[in-house]
Design a protein that fits this description.
about 65% helix, 6 helices
């Protein structure tokens, strides 16, 4: 498994691998959705996790913390408060970083 401490959360790899297997089985592949729709964990939303994973990899190359700000709540299941604590930043900073990360992902 590709999961190591301090790197991308294991849940991200599990979900992306599962999405890839499903996309290969379907002729049309996965449906594209916005990041805001994708962040609604628990909803019956079809996610294009492969594209999201690739976008997060590009974001991490430019700004690793902004990538983590997306990963921790979405793939790690942490609350914003828990994510801020894990990154040793305030919740206000987390929300600012989250806005900037979402904007970056929408442009890419």
């Amino acid at each position: 498994m590709r999961c190591l401490a301090g790197e991308t959360p294991c849940m991200r790899h599990i979900l992306v691998d599962h999405a890839g297997a499903n996309a290969r089985q379907k002729r049309g592949g996965a449906e594209k959705v916005s990041l805001d729709e994708a962040i609604m964990v628990g909803e019956e939303t079809s996610l294009d996790l492969i594209d999201l994973d690739e976008a997060l990899q590009r974001l991490a190359a430019n700004d690793p913390r902004k990538s983590q700000v997306i990963e921790l709540p979405f793939f790690g299941g942490l609350t914003y408060e828990e994510s801020a604590a894990a990154l040793n930043i305030s919740e206000a900073t987390l929300h600012r970083e989250l806005k900037m990360a979402k904007a970056w992902l929408h442009r890419s």
